[in-house]
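Sample pair:
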Amino acid sequence: MLWSQEPTASGKASERFSWLTSRLHEALPGFLKWFPATGIGFAMIGLTGFLIDIGFLTLLHGAIHVPYAIAVTLGYAASSVANFVLNRWLNFQMHGNIAKQTGRQLVVAISNYVIWILGFSTVIELLGVQYQVARIISACVEGIYLYVMMRLWVFPRHEQLELVSSESRPALGADAGIDDDAVADDPIAS
């Protein structure tokens, strides 16, 4: 699909999401063009995840009086799952080895949780910052961390390009009369 074409009503959700993020990217002023379109998509999905997170925190800690660390943990777990699924499907449009991607995301989510969510936001809250404000401050820092880790490690571009090139190549076999090894060595074919 060309980025300049508006998606059809029957288009896939991922195509419509790509179209929207590319439109928003084109609308950025010149000095912000370095910011990737997937960063815009990540921010949109991250806001959704954050609303899930802060909603759980407010309900559990504010209304039900669950201890802060437990409320933060449950909210973060729910938003992490939503964030991973939506980024994989809509933003980075990855397919392939979900077990590998899920394992990597689990490492990122746990490290993010320990460093930024539990550690940093708890320290800020203990210093007297209101718990929701502490969570918002830590969310700003963790957003950068999560995007970089998702883009470079969980859903790396080279795996996305390998998947696209392997899906676009026709299946070769003995029936076609073409030697697969010869095609693999041909720089034009790859």
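The CA atoms of residues 108 and 149 lie 7 Å apart.
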